[in-house]
TrEMBL record:
This is stearoyl-CoA 9-desaturase. Residues 68-271 form the Fatty acid desaturase domain. Its cofactor is Fe(2+). One of its GO terms (cellular component) is endoplasmic reticulum membrane. Its EC number is 1.14.19.1. One of its GO terms (biological process) is unsaturated fatty acid biosynthetic process. The histidine box domains are involved in binding the catalytic metal ions. Its main location: endoplasmic reticulum. The keyword DNA-binding does not apply. It is a multi-pass membrane protein. Belongs to the fatty acid desaturase type 1 family. CDD domains: Delta9-FADS-like.
């Protein structure tokens, strides 16, 4: 695809580790607080994944239109996380118009991964205190914990303490964010469950059974796991061409499954780059979407890291695996 004349704002200063991580934070010595299992979440996640496996068995019986609808719902709900809660609201890496923010808020409700306010607050804590007890999904605690286990236990006290001290006045000032937070439960019922199930049943006669288990339950579970892979696999497996001193990695499988979020060593090194990668649209559907929104003048001011800053960081802290282009 040809480049569009978007003219992103270039973020020139080289991002330092101190800007992303709190290097003054020290984990408390002594015994760790006990792990408290939230059995309600364990039961719900077990039921959800069991239902998703059943939905996978129903895929051959779904119509072609239903499969296309399932894919469309997957992309829209994923964009609610990647382009919305992550790149727009957590990192403020570009500016979104009111219509775009409303669309992304509905898309975020379709993803059903906590409201924008809570998701963005926790993600900022994750970046500032990555791989410490204050990180909600600390990858040092293993793949299972960073993937799904962190949702099955009570938050570590440090996560709560540090989250309360973050500057999040911008989220509180955003009327779309606070409106979605106020009406989050009904918006989830509408966007995550009712709409994906109702459309194929009403418009082309798909059975409600298939419409519930394939574009609703299976799609929802796939979006959850593709997002979780960014927290787990992309913090464990892959190369670190930009900063070998941090855990996040470049992971192509995660990039593909999470529509562009797997360039994770780059993202943690330069968190305010709207593309989360130096390669633009390459394997990055979310960047394509933001570029299209900028072209349509529904988004503006996409922040970018200069080539000089990237190359300087590669030479200073990279693991020698960097390849340009």
């Amino acid at each position: 695809m040809p480049d569009m004349d978007i003219k992103p704002a270039v973020w020139r200063p080289e991002q330092s580790v101190e800007d992303v991580f709190d290097t003054t934070y020290k984990e408390k010595e002594g015994p760790k607080p006990p792990v408290v299992i939230v059995w309600r979440n364990v039961v719900l996640m077990t039921l959800l994944h069991t239902a998703a496996l059943y939905g996978l068995l129903l895929v051959p019986s779904a119509s072609v239109l239903t499969l296309f609808w399932t894919f469309a719902c997957f992309v829209v709900s994923a964009l609610g996380i990647t382009a919305g809660a992550h790149r727009l609201w957590s990192h403020r890496s570009y500016k979104g118009s009111l219509p775009l923010r409303i669309f992304l808020a509905f898309a975020n409700s379709m993803a059903f991964q906590n409201d924008i306010y809570e998701w963005s607050r926790d993600h900022r804590v994750h970046h500032k205190y990555s791989e410490t007890d204050a990180d909600p999904h600390n990858a040092v605690r293993g793949f299972f914990f960073s993937h799904i286990g962190w949702l099955l236990v009570r938050k570590h006290p440090d996560v709560i303490e540090k989250g309360r001290k973050l500057e999040i006045s911008d989220l509180k000032a955003d009327k779309v964010v606070m409106f979605q937070r106020r009406y989050y439960k009904p918006s989830v019922l509408l966007m995550c469950f009712f709409l994906p199930m109702f459309v194929p049943w009403f418009l082309w006669g798909e059975s409600l059974w298939v419409a519930y288990f394939v574009p609703t339950v299976l799609r929802y579970t796939l979006v959850l796991n593709s997002t979780w892979l960014v927290n787990s696999a992309a913090h464990m497996w892959g190369n670190r061409p930009y900063d070998s001193t941090i855990n996040p990695r470049e992971n192509r499988f995660v990039t593909f499954s999470a529509i562009g979020e797997g360039f994770h060593n780059y993202h943690h090194t330069f968190p305010f780059d709207y593309a989360t990668s130096e390669y633009g649209w390459k394997l990055n559907l979310t960047t394509c979407f933001i570029d299209l929104m900028c072209f349509l003048r529904l988004a503006s001011d996409p922040k970018r890291v200069s080539r000089d800053a990237v190359n300087a960081r590669v030479q200073r802290t990279g693991d020698a695996s960097h390849r340009s282009g």
